[in-house]
Design a protein that fits this description.
Elements lengths: L8 E3 L12 H11 L12 H16 L3 E2 L7 E10 L2 E14 L6 E7 L24 H19 L8 E7 L7 H8 L8 E7 L11 E4 L5 H13 L4 E4 L8 H5 L5 E5 L18 H20 L27 E3 L8 E6 L4 H5 L6 E5 L2 E2 L3 H9 L6 E8 L2 E8 L1
Parallel strand pairs: 5-6, 5-7, 7-10, 8-9
Antiparallel strand pairs: 1-9, 2-4, 3-4, 4-6, 8-10, 11-12, 12-13, 13-14, 13-15, 15-16
GO molecular function: metalloexopeptidase activity
InterPro entries: M28_fam, PDZ, PDZ_sf, Peptidase_M28
Keywords: Hydrolase, Signal
């Protein structure tokens, strides 16, 4: 997953947990396969990703989903171009698309990206000397892909014809810039006019009591505020919300086509884009609770008298939404933090922040003379600098305020 989120408000729930609808053991089984060394990190268009695509397609087929890719298959191929050590490569990636046809007029899209960073030659690894090291991506995004598979099994096997059709899409190329979802929305296999909304799952495997669940796209439809809080209470899920429909995951591609979107995410962590993002750190019970919430949302959408209305969401970031900057601090932002400034969740060794003396838990309140009120302010600063630039950072560390010099 790539991040560009601003989390705006916090809601808490205190009621008892509803009985689980999803089996943590089944969730474990999928993640263990998708994040196994055998798949070598599922780099876009690699053999490991092709094996993952075949696994997903087989499950779609066994669930009775109709092929909804190209040429009557489950696969929607598209070209990707990227450089490795300065050498350009043109390869073929594939979205995997299955369709549950309930004979309805409208279709809900459920998505997750199944690609990751492979062996460190593509994407943005945060592990030093990462090349030729397998990045298994158990949370990012074997967890979301597993959610896709479990929801497909649930709705195809429940012997109920919901009031929506459901299109299940496993996207490739997300780590290279949302390539698979962009391609789908430009070449849809189900007309965009028929799509009611898009539900995205990106990194849902690390639910913790301190961060809770993070829900993005809240401002893209009033339906989310109406339907989700009660569902979260039933699962005893504490959550933050992000109003914007523009983030660095695949829901963005649909929002930009004026489709209501909602994304589920359990927050950043120190293993993000590192070789240490492994199965042992997944909260399988937590993911089961999240999937119960999402299944309940899909069911509630079918009971509404009208489709979720689209609205343009508040998005305080007016600059470049890409995370492909020329410079980096080498930090993981704490995406559950809702206060002023940017709180650091992790610092990568030997990167600019580490060299400047920044620590996990520091809150950046000013960078290069610009006040940092949100992650978008931080991104604006990164986007305006080049490697070698020297800037001052002002930090809040506990009750102290510190100033450090940063060299990008």
């Amino acid at each position: 997953m790539k991040y560009t989120y601003l989390f705006l408000s916090l809601l808490t729930a205190t009621v008892s947990v509803q009985a689980q609808d999803f089996d943590p053991a089944a969730i474990r089984k999928h993640i263990e396969y998708l994040a196994s060394d055998d798949l070598e990190g599922r780099g876009t268009a690699t053999m490991g990703e092709i094996r993952a695509a075949n696994y997903i397609a087989d499950i779609f087929k066994n669930a009775g989903l109709k092929p909804a890719g190209a040429d009557g298959s489950y696969f929607q191929p598209f070209q990707v171009s990227f450089a490795i050590d300065g050498n350009p490569h043109l390869l073929t990636a594939r979205n995997v698309v299955g369709y549950l046809d309930n004979g309805a007029k409208k279709t809900i899209v459920i998505g997750a990206h199944y690609d990751h960073l492979g062996k460190g030659f593509q994407g943005s690894s945060l592990t030093p000397d990462s090349k030729n090291k397998i990045h298994n991506g158990a949370d990012d995004n074997a967890s979301g892909t597993t959610g896709l598979l479990e929801l497909a099994a649930r709705f195809s096997g429940n012997k109920i014809s919901e009031k929506h059709n459901i299109l299940f899409i496993a996207f490739s190329g997300e780590e290279l810039g949302l390539l698979g979802s962009k391609y789908f929305t430009e070449n849809p296999t189900v007309s965009l006019d028929q799509i009611s909304c898009m539900i995205n799952m990106d990194m849902i495997g690390r639910l913790s009591s301190d961060k809770g669940l993070i829900i993005s796209g809240w401002g893209t439809s009033p339906a989310w505020g109406k339907l989700i809080p009660d569902l979260a209470k039933k699962q005893n899920l504490r959550f933050n919300v992000d109003s914007s429909g523009v983030g660095a995951s695949d829901h963005t591609s649909f929002y930009l086509k004026n489709i209501p979107v909602v994304q589920f995410f359990t927050g950043g962590h120190s293993d993000y884009h590192k070789i240490s993002d492994d199965v042992a750190k997944i909260n399988f019970q937590g993911e089961a609770s999240i999937l119960s919430l999402i299944a309940g949302l899909i069911e509630k959408l079918g009971n509404e008298s009208a489709e979720p209305p689209f609205q343009t969401a508040e998005n305080p970031h007016s600059g470049n939404t890409s995370t492909d900057f020329k410079v980096t601090l080498g930090i993981m932002p704490d995406y559950s933090y809702s206060g002023k400034g940017l709180r650091i969740d992790a610092v990568t060794k030997a990167r600019p922040a580490d060299k400047a003396g920044m620590l996990t838990g520091d809150i950046i309140i000013k960078l290069a003379g610009k006040e940092i009120g949100s992650i978008y302010d931080y991104m604006d600063v990164l986007g305006s600098h080049e490697k070698g630039d020297q800037v001052e950072a002002e930090l809040r560390r506990g009750t102290e305020t510190k100033k450090v010099q940063v060299t990008f």
